[in-house]
Specification:
eight-stranded mixed beta barrel, TIM Barrel, binds calcium ion, alpha/beta, binds ligand C2E, 434 residues, globular
């Protein structure tokens, strides 16, 4: 046994000694083989394809307590968890030195050039998904150089990162770093794309693509959300005209943050911006945002609806909900949150919730959109349940305007409809008998 393995055995004991409720340090590491391109030329195809898996198995064997998985041919994700920070750092050090040794394939051995993106945090601040996202960001901040970037979650360092990101976001609009992706909504009965949703993207010069789940809350905190939303609406109007020129005169829906709904200045700016064009635009708003300041939110939504903006209630079922407000909203569309749709065909309760939500929306004379439709089986079941529209990866992922036009020209949604027909009869029977 090597000295590394000895020290790692000690870590195993320590790792297992983490009792429930005790302080826990967690680390997520994204390790990339930066010379994969060169290696691929020298290795056989199957060795190159299996490299990340081989490395992850080795790490799982060598570094006790580590959970490593290959997430791409050149990328491994590793999780570590200990009761003390120094143990975690020690485990990470030994992990890094493990890559110093060349890796053998047959008679040849090759040196791996590694770069590491690390996210580390303690207890509550270190939720798993947050750590994974931060490890991804840390890796992209290495800029492909052979180095390690560590993102300390919940510490002063993280605050500095966030502050820098907030400053960058302020400049992002001026620098043209924001752009829109579009995701179509398909009418189930007519099997036609009837509208699209605009989803904002930020191409950060250092970090690459920052997900909206990260920068929208930041924009809400800093106030940049007003400018961002006005830009999104302006761009959506421009892109809608381009779609119409290509023979696809579809309504474009824009997401509106809750805090904007009670802002009279914003409402006036939007109304001015939409003069004569509102009939081509829709807004997606959550019920939670209405409940925050119902009187002014409903007044502004009524103004938007009056000039022709179609209102959709987003993420239905995921946040606060009130039948009293639901009845008062001038909404034509209710979007059932993907939380209930992605597990639709494997859960016992979700189909019942979805079915009763469809009935409720129809009673309120709203059309229902199911978001997060990923499988033909889900589409078939929703169709049987009388869902009006669907949106999700099965139909189309969010894509650029250019790709959207190609998708619409080629009727790219036809494959999803075809696949769901095969499952339709069986599901229809099962659902109606239940
Ligand atoms: P959302 O409005 O609920 O948008 C749907 C999200 O689900 C999008 O994530 C989309 O990529 C993802 N999605 C679509 N189909 C599927 C599917 O079949 N399966 C799964 N698992 N996911 C699917 P995205 O683009 O990361 O956006 C996240 C959230 O960020 C949006 O959630 C929206 O609330 C917000 N957002 C995006 N753009 C804007 C914006 O311009 N303004 C505001 N205020 N919020 C925005
Ligand atoms: Ca939305
Ligand atoms: Ca949604």
């Amino acid at each position: 046994m090597t000295s590394d393995e000895l020290s790692l055995d000690r870590q195993k004991a320590e790792c297992h000694a983490v009792s429930p409720g005790a302080s826990r340090w967690r680390m997520v590491i994204h390790a990339r083989v930066t010379n994969f391109g060169q290696l691929r030329r020298r290795l056989s195809r199957s060795d190159a394809d299996g490299l990340a898996t081989l490395l992850s198995h080795r790490i799982n064997r060598m570094v006790m307590g580590a959970r490593a998985v290959a997430i791409a041919r050149d990328l491994i994700e590793i999780e570590l968890e200990f009761s003390r920070r120094d143990m975690l750092d020690e485990a990470f050090e030994s992990l890094v030195t493990h890559f110093d040794d060349p890796i053998g394939f047959g008679k040849e051995s090759y040196r791996l050039n590694m770069t590491f993106g690390v996210a580390v945090g303690e207890d509550v601040c270190a939720d798993e998904l947050g750590l994974i996202e931060r490890a991804e960001q840390a890796l992209c901040r290495t800029n492909g150089q052979l180095r390690t970037v560590v993102h300390e979650v919940g510490s002063g360092a993280a605050e500095i990162d966030r502050a820098a990101m907030a400053r960058d976001l302020d400049r992002a609009l001026a620098r043209g770093e924001l752009f829109l992706h579009y995701q179509p909504k398909m009418n189930v009965r007519r099997q036609e794309i009837t509208s699209v949703e605009a989803l904002t993207r930020w191409n950060h010069p250092l970090c690459g693509l920052v997900p909206p789940g990260e920068f929208i809350p930041l924009a809400e905190e800093t106030g940049a959300i007003t400018e961002l939303t006005l830009w999104t609406i302006t761009q959506a109007i421009i892109d809608q005209a381009v779609l119409a020129e290509h023979g696809h005169d579809l309504r474009v829906f824009v997401n509106i943050s809750g805090m904007m709904l009670s802002d009279s200045r914003f409402a006036a700016d939007v109304t001015a911006l939409l003069r004569g064009k509102a009939g081509k635009i829709g807004f997606e708003v959550t019920e939670t945002s209405v409940i925050r300041d119902p009187e002014s939110a409903i007044r502004h939504l009524e103004e938007f609806a009056r000039i022709g903006v179609e209102i959709a209630i987003d993420d239905y079922g995921a946040g606060l909900s009130s039948l009293a407000y639901l009845k008062r909203l001038p909404a034509r569309e209710l979007k059932i949150d993907k939380l209930f749709i992605t597990q639709l065909t494997s859960s016992n309760r979700d189909p019942l919730i979805v079915r009763s939500t469809i009935d409720l929306a129809h009673a309120l004379e709203m059309e229902v959109v199911a978001e997060g439709v990923e499988t033909p089986a889900a589409l078939a079941l929703l169709s049987v349940m009388g869902c009006d529209m669907v949106q999700g990866f099965l139909i189309c992922r969010p894509i650029t305007l250019r790709d959207l036009i190609r998708f619409l020209d080629s009727k790219g949604h036809a494959h999803a409809v075809g696949d769901s027909r095969a499952t339709f009869g069986r599901l229809a029977l099962a659902w109606q008998q239940s």
